[in-house]
Amino acid sequence: MDRRILRTRIIISEAFLKILPKKCFAEISVVNIAQQANINRSTFYAHFLDKEDLLENMVNEKFQLLEQLLAERNSHLGSVPSFNEPDPIFAVLFEHILEHDEFYRVMLLINPAGNFNIRLNEVIRETFFDRISQLDREQKVQVPLDILLDHISFSTIGMIHKWIADHKVCSPHHMALQLTRIALLGTYKAMGASV
Predict the structure, then answer these.
(1) Burial 32-58 (b: 16+ CB within 10 A, else e)
(2) 54 CB contacts (<8 Å, ≥6 apart)?
(3) What is the distance between the alpha carbons of residues 23 and 21, in angstroms, rounded to a whole number?
(4) Worst-scoring range by mean pLDDT, 48-52, 109-113, 116-120, 183-187?
(5) Please, which residues have CB within 8 angstroms of residue 110's CB and are 6 or more apart in sequence?
(6) Predicted model pTM
(7) Residue 79 has pLDDT above 70, yes or no
(8) C-alpha radius of gyration, the chain, whole number
(9) Considering all CA atoms of the chain, what is the largest pairwise distance in Å, rounded to the nearest integer?
(10) DSSP string, the chain
């Protein structure tokens, strides 16, 4: 993509993200976005059909980037992570979210796109399914696979949501390491209970 086109699309996206915390999605107009971006409406329409198209493009770009990062890390995994190093999947998730902080803050806490959480859940679920597929198949999954994947994905999204809401007090490395340790220990051992 031409550099000027890319730059204009970034300016429009950033303007939209600035408006979303202040106004509900239904009330935002293309005029609002154009004014915030300091462009005219025809420039907006040269890049996007409408605000829905803009939002969909922003979400798709972030998910494509996240999926690419996760696939790169996941392809090098052959064993279970160690207790003192974060699982690369968790590490990628928290690093990526920190790098794109404003986008994820708006999408997860304000949630203008009704299906954003569902799509994020699917990305996490699919990534862990790929991980399980790479493991030694002689080892049987101890609980039904659907329940296991739902537990991993929903608990991970819950922790991401809380981390963002708490203004990311802990580093991405710390968060990824704690989720790795909980996964390795299991809930009861992590609580200190003997199993």
Answers:
(1) bbbebbebeeeebeebbeebeebbebb
(2) 12, 13, 16, 33, 47, 48
(3) 6
(4) 109-113
(5) 20, 21
(6) 0.88
(7) no
(8) 19
(9) 65
(10) --HHHHHHHHHHHHHHHHHTTTS-GGG--HHHHHHHHT--HHHHHHH-SSHHHHHHHHHHHHHHHHHHHHHHHHTT--SPPPTTS--HHHHHHHHHHHHTHHHHHIIIII--STTHHHHHHHHHHHHHHHHHHHS-TTSPPSS-HHHHHHHHHHHHHHHHHHHHHTT--S-HHHHHHHHHHHHHH-HHHHTT---
- pLDDT tens digits, residue range 51-68? 999 999 999 999 999 999
- Amino acid at residue number 185: L
Residue position matching structure tokens 């699919």: 126
Q: Please tell me the predicted confidence (pLDDT) of residue 49.
A: 96
Tokens 């329940």 correspond to: 147
Tokens of 177: 């390491």
Residue type, 130: D
